[in-house]
Give the backbone structure.
Amino acid sequence: MTTLASHLSTFLREYLPRDRAASTHTCEAYAYSLMLLLRFASERLRVTPSQINLAQVDSPLVLAFLTDIEKAAAIRANPQCPLARSSRSFATSNIVSPPYRAGRQITAFREEDG
């Protein structure tokens, strides 16, 4: 099992700024969004954030997170939502190795998929 730390670090420090030309503010926004996701996952899975494995962050968990955020902040989960964008971007980046990505495209952020 692979912990998320190395993947998140590479995604935030290398992939976004270098490969996607993301600004510092964008990288910070993504880091904050992913931190919220990890807190939610930690509570849901009853483990510390450092113990969360890549395979545990699946579509149902991300959708439950977005539903929780919707209820808490009264926002609509859609492709333009920064939380949805950062979660989807990480899940579909080349940083996540193919064995974990296979068949796990996160497309459920569109309202019609719900």
